[in-house]
Every structure is written in structure tokens, then in C-alpha cells.
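Render this sequence as a predicted structure.
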Amino acid sequence: MPGIRFGLVSKPNWNANRPIAVQFILTLVRGHCGQDLDCLRRNYYNIMIRLEQQFNLPAAIDVCKEMVQVARMQKDLKEEGGSNMNLSRYYSALGMNRLATVYIDKALALFDQSGHYFPQVEARMSKLELSVKDRKLGDVLADMDVLLAEAEGKGDSLAIYHLNARMLRLKIDAGRYEEAYKHIAVIEKCRWPIQSGLLF
């Protein structure tokens, strides 16, 4: 079923002070899709991304919460976890770090149940990055090193690449240049497409 074209989404009346506009669009989607959960998820996702691109994050949050409900109805733990990760990103961008952490924890619990390793790594890394604001950078980096060693032990090349790439900037910020060079060396050795036997 084709998606809906929403002219409203690209107009200035989409802003945090117009929650009625969000509800209007959600109602249109529900009327278009009915009980087709795949249709709901697809259209909600397209609207959410458009809103994110406009940095209309309060509205994107409202739509993303609908995606959480759809994933729950589909019993799709990985998708529900991913939507919670998006909520965490949005709350973090709005400076609401407590809520950002709450939604990461929800995502982690779902990823643990799903048995998919890379999403767990991404969520754990995101939580560590958030904690930089409240902890010493050296302590956070030590925890990241432990996470990287775990990924290396599992031989998951996608997780290894992902962690090295995200740790690189923090190691440079900390002035730990020798370690940063090691991350660069690992990244350069990665071959594409990077494989992860623990992902779909």
C-alpha cells in the first residue's frame, strides 16, 4: 500500500506549539492504514524522519511513541527497541538527559530479550556517551574499552567498527592520541560489507 503524501509536514505550521497538527496527521495515517500495522509503521517512520530533519523534535517524539505501540502490537522486540533509541536521541538533543537515559534502558531491555548483539552494543555505547556529562571522561573511556574488548571477543566486526569509530573522537578529546591512532588503524583495516552474524 503506498504511503500518504503529507504536504503539512513541510510547512511552517509544524512546531512544538501545534500539537493539534500532529494529532491530525496521526488520525489521517490511522484512517489510511486501518489495521495494517506495516502500513502504520511505514508511514509513521516517514513522518518522524521528516520532522527530525526539520528539528521539530517534540512532534517527532509524539510520532515515535506511536511507532513503539505498533512494534509492541507486532511483538517486534528489535523494532520496539529501535524506536526507544530514537526517543532517547530526541530527548538527548533537547537536553533532557534523564529521559534520554530512561529510553536507552528500555531499549537495552528489549534488545537483551531479542538476542541481537549489535543493537545492545549501540545502546550501551550511547548510554556511556550520555554519561560523559556526569562522570570523568577517563572512567567513561575505561568502560568503553571494556565494551570494545567484549565485541572483539565475540568477533563481531560490525560492533568492532562501530565502537572504534565512536571512541575515536573521545580519545582525541582526551588527548590520548596513541590510542586514537590505534582506533584509526582498526577502522582502516575493516572490509566492506562488514558482517555481523548476530544480526538479521
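Summary. The longest helix spans residues 97-114. Residues 4 and 28 are 9 Å apart (CA to CA).
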